[in-house]
Amino acid sequence: MTTNNFDANKLRLLSLLALYTKPAGVENKYDHYIKEYALLSIIYDLIIRGILDYDYSARLVLWKGAYLFMNISQEALADLELLVEKGYVKRIKFSTKGYLYVVGYSITERGLEIVKKYPEHMEAVKNALKCECGGIMSIIIEDDDAYYVCCDKKIRIGCLLTEDVSYETQPIFV
Amino acid sequence: MSTIRDVLEEYTFLYQPIIIICEWVPFGPNQFAHFCEALSAYKKDEIFITPEVDMHPETPLFKIEPYYAWVRVKNVEEGKRVYFESRIFYPEESKVKQTENFGVTVEESGFIFYSCKLIKCSADENISKASLPVEYASLDKLARVVSDLLEDTSTLMNSMLNSYQKRILSVIFPRSHEELYERKKILCLITKEIIYKGRSLREHIKETKLGDLLSSYSDFRKELQQVLGFVINWIELPDGDIIIRGRDGFLILTDERGVEKYKKVMKIILSLLALETFYLHLFSRVWMIWDSLNLIRSEISREDVEHSIGKYRIALSSTLADTVILWDVDHLARFALNYLNRQIELLRGKQGEGTLGDGEIIRAILSIVNVDEAMEVIRSKIEATKSVLEAFRMDIDGLTTLVNTFIEREMRSIRRAMWKSIKKQTRMMEIEQAEKERLELIEFLSAGLLIAEILSLMFAWLESAFSLTFGGWEYLFSIAAIFMLAMLLRFVIRRITGEEEESESSTQ
């Protein structure tokens, strides 16, 4: 645990948000948000690569207006909730063309201050998301998955690939 | 074995949980009879069903990949429900072994229940820190089992529904018939024991309140939310039973005696929530139709219409098809709602029963699921949907008339342009004809002059060579000869031209 009860996961989550979002006044007059499913895709990737230490499981989500399974970390969502509650992250909800809602997250100035205090976590996240051609990888959402874009190439994240376990069931009737 | 790519931290385990998945698919008496017929339910048949479609009905032989489900009809209650057992043989990752058997109950009202008991959930030494036997499934793994069941039950049902029902589902849940895409269903887990952080949940509750265990950032809540969605509320019953309600389903902890009681009660509650979920999605589709109509209206009323008017007519026709499909759902939903209403009334009647009956369970469930409100919401959604769809049909009619008017106007201007062009062409043909005749005259005159020249030379030669004189008659002879030859030439030219025109028209 570090100060403010922030463990490495929360600090890295804040660093991740600091890389992709900005509060108004930092770059221009606009608040910059990242959509929840894009953020969850990156979180999944960082879990797989050992940068974040969360569990995840497949949950049915609305992906471009249709339902499919996506690997989502409830622990990461709970941490985001906590960061929102403490004022380090701002959350916004806006409607889509399909009359459904999408949630966006953005780091606040207080959140940025915390990130500055722990450059090692920012470094770890930045290294994981660094593009060889400079800067950090951008992210695009397509029908079949989320992709990083780096040096004009698309790298599949695989957040929609569900996992299987061995099991045995017996039928019952209701 | 598993294909999990992460190292799981498993805190919560359920002992051989019963998994019930419920969805509402528009059925009604006709579709139900067709469904029973397709299953050969009357002879309690045993068959294999594949999601593949026969694309070559003219060929006598066919081959399919061995991805199918085995189905055996257990019981049929004529005109009410059919029970069948299913075993799934869909492909899984090679290192994963799944024996996926479940019972399916399809009701005439459209409520479908897929249910099974999870006997074993493999413990993988590489990824699990748990030391519990395989009869205990961690919530982390259960989440994966449930998503697998949700996927496979959709594939199974897609192989059995008719194209009309599939069309309805694909309008409500876009692309749900495609691989990867899903329909929303409601889940219920019933278990006799929950182990949390190495101890029974019942023991935990003796020391800590259930509310504290389910506090915002607790591991228990986070793990539960992997399966149930956002945890909404919960209740503890005096006999130690626990019901936790999430956004997508329920977790019930009870004893052997309670399992059957909960199954009966939850069947009604799950049906209600499944119908509510269906209508939630139906209504967002309704607003999307409204959007597309607005777009068409604004585009066709613009001066600089981008696309051809015909394109809007096609778009309107497709929107009308979607509207009619949703309209058709209306009477099936009312049929289901009436059935549900009767079931809920029966449930309420049992509320008064003592601890040995279902009364306590019903009261507990009704305290965390507001059945009256849910029924009212569905009823008003059905009413609202019907009137909105009625308005849409009128709107589509209006827009179609407008598009037809535009098309008529377009046709009129085309006709006007055509007449103009015909007139122009006729005039050009007349000019061409006059020109032709003038040329002919010039040709005759030239030919006449040539003949006159030849004749005068001939007479001059006769006069100089043989000293013959004609006393001026040679001039009259020349005139007559020129005239006759010109007429002959004209006749020949007309004949040739006539033949050419005739052969041209016959080739066209």
Report the uncertain regions of chain A: none
- Portion of residues within helices of chain A: 25-40%
**CATH-defined architecture of chain A:** Orthogonal Bundle
Order of strands, widest sheet of chain B? 3-4-5-7-8-2-11-16-15-14
CATH class of chain A: Mainly Alpha
Structural class of chain B: alpha+beta
Output the radius of gyration of chain B.
43 Å
What pattern of helices and strands is seen along the backbone of chain B? EEHEEEEEEEHHEEEEHHHEEEHHHHH
The CATH topology assignment of chain A is: Arc Repressor Mutant, subunit A
Question: Could you tell me the strand content of chain A as a percent range?
Answer: 25-35%
Order of helices and strands of chain A: HEHEEHEEHHEEEE
Q: What is the helix fraction of residues of chain B, given as a range? A: 55-70%
Basic shape of chain B: elongated
Q: Tell me about the largest β-sheet of chain B.
A: 10 strands, mixed
The counted number of beta strands of chain A is: 9
What does the overall shape of chain A look like?
globular
Individual helix count of chain A: 5
Please describe the biggest sheet of chain A, giving its number of strands, its sense, and whether it closes into a barrel: 3 strands, antiparallel
State the secondary-structure class of chain A: alpha+beta
* Count of β-strands of chain B: 16
Average pLDDT level of chain B: 86
